[in-house]
Amino acid sequence: MSRIRVLLADDHTVLRAGLRMLINAQPDLEVVAEASTGEEASRLAREARPDVALMDLSMPGAGGIDATAEIRRACPDTRVLVLTMHDDPAYLRSVLAAGAAGYLLKRAADTELLSAIRITHRRGTFLDPSLAGTVVEEALGRKARPSKGDRPADALSEREREVLRLVAQGHTNQQVADRLGLSVKTVETYRARLMDKLGLRSRADLVRYALSTGLLASP
C-alpha cells in the first residue's frame, strides 16, 4: 500500500519534529518535505508533489493563506490542510476561499490530526468541530454581519494597507516589522492608526474587515 505523502509547513522546529514523528509512525503516512516559510512551502510542494500539505498560517515571509493559494494553483492534486492556533471563523473562511480542504486547530487531539490528513487526502473536507457550525450557518444563509461600518479601505495609506493585510494573515507585530523593515513600535502605531480610521476594535474585527474587502486575496 502506498503511503500518503505529507509536506509539513510550520516555522516552529520543535513542533515540526513532533508532527514528523507522529506522522511517520503511521503505516499509511510519511513526511516527504518540511518548510518554515510560505515561500519554501510553495517551492517544496512544486518539487515534491505531496498528497497533503499541512500548513500553518503564521510564518515568516508569505503567510499560509498566500502559500495555500499558490500551492492550489501550481499543484492542483495537492490537498492543503491548515493546522493553526487561530480560532476566529474569519481565518477559516479565508483559507477555504484560498482553496484549503481542511482547517484544524493545534489544540486538537493527535488522532484528529491523523484523521484529518486521511480525510483530506480522500478528497474530503475536514473542519475543526468548534468552527464547523459557522460554515453550516453561512450555508443556511445566516451570514455574520460585518464587524463595523462601511468605511473604505482606500482611506488607508499604502503602508497601512500592508500592515492590515499582514496582521490579518496572522503575523505577529514582530513578523510584520521584520518583513516591512520597520520597528515593532512603528508597526504598532500603524496598526492603531488604521484600526482607528476603520472603526475596528479587535484583531477579529480586523480579520473580518480584511476578508470582506478582499485584502486577504492573493495578488
Summarize the helices and strands and which ones pair or pack.
Blueprint: E1 4-9, H1 13-24, E2 29-35, H2 38-48, E3 52-55, H3 64-74, E4 79-84, H4 89-98, E5 102-105, H5 110-121, E6 126-127, H6 129-139, H7 158-168, H8 173-180, H9 184-198, H10 203-212
Parallel strand pairs: 1-2, 1-3, 3-4, 4-5, 5-6
Helix pairs in contact: 2-3, 4-10, 7-9, 7-10, 8-9
Q: Please describe the biggest sheet, giving its number of strands, its sense, and whether it closes into a barrel.
A: 6 strands, parallel
The 3D shape can be described as: globular
Order of helices and strands: EHEHEHEHEHEHHHHH
The domain tally reads 2
Strand content: 5-15%
> What's the name of the CATH homologous superfamily of the largest domain?
Response regulator
